[in-house]
């Protein structure tokens, strides 16, 4: 039986019934999920188990499962030197008669709570120890190797995508060729890190990306809090000062300033200001 892409209706797991899905997860992983801990997002559902672990369940149409697969959490388990919840196992199945697959990954619990929403509006309280662990993990991540390619916003990052994204908003930038590619989390924001003990989670999109993607992504998520954005830039100075890091800064600024920009986004002006500085640096260099 074949299915067209159009046959897969859009599903929001924040409102879609998932009781049968969670029942299957419990049977397959031989555990019980605590209903009082369930966290529902657009394309995933998570909950704590009765053996003090966490299960994240994701739904994905077959056409969104590329040759790279969708085993980011599993493949990230082999990364050396990166603080993250240990991966325990998974179960994967296809919906009967539908071009849709489900995947449930079980990991250790976080050592702290998620810091906040993806984009912060106020500065979090983070210790110097936290910032050291953050820097050590990002440095270690870049020293690893992988055959995966990062998929920020679920889109595979390529030289062509970088160039089109930047020139679409900043047409004066002619040379957008990136050079150094290193492993990146590719969704580094304040909802995917814990505190007071640092841990990095939600590894679905990780893979090779231009140097500076993670730093620029977190900086963009911090722009509504100038002191926090400055701290991110200070902590990842080497990334931001590299040519690829400057291009990644323009890449994330283009998302903030592009045609889908929200006119009341407090990040617009600081992103525009920084983009002008970066363009000036690139043209001078």
TrEMBL record:
Domain of life: Bacteria
Protein name according to UniProt: Aminoglycoside phosphotransferase
